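dumping this here before i forget
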Amino acid sequence: MADNPVIHFEIPADDMIRAKAFYESVFDWDIVHYGEYGYTVINTVGEGGKEGINGGLVTRGQPWIAPGVSVRVADIDAALARIEANGGKILRPKQAIGIGFVAYFTDTEDNVGAVLQLNS
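structure:
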């Protein structure tokens, strides 16, 4: 089994307030906007050790944002090279974020995804 798990998802929204209300009401998710990072986090994993992954609520319209998943990788540069070598395209190059590095890509079917290298 590969050691590259899906660790995050993103849901685009036209109206962040409406989307936040929807997902909090329907699934009882805790959704918090972190202004200093400009990112809205969706906490789906409740207390008590429930399984699942957390995600983000993002403003629709940015060229690299679509419903997608983030895959944790050990070496983001190597992952980006493999993406391009296998027909994928880099939409947003590697950038530092508070927890490591992230980059967005499309696969051969034009689906958007992200690779995420976490700080040690």
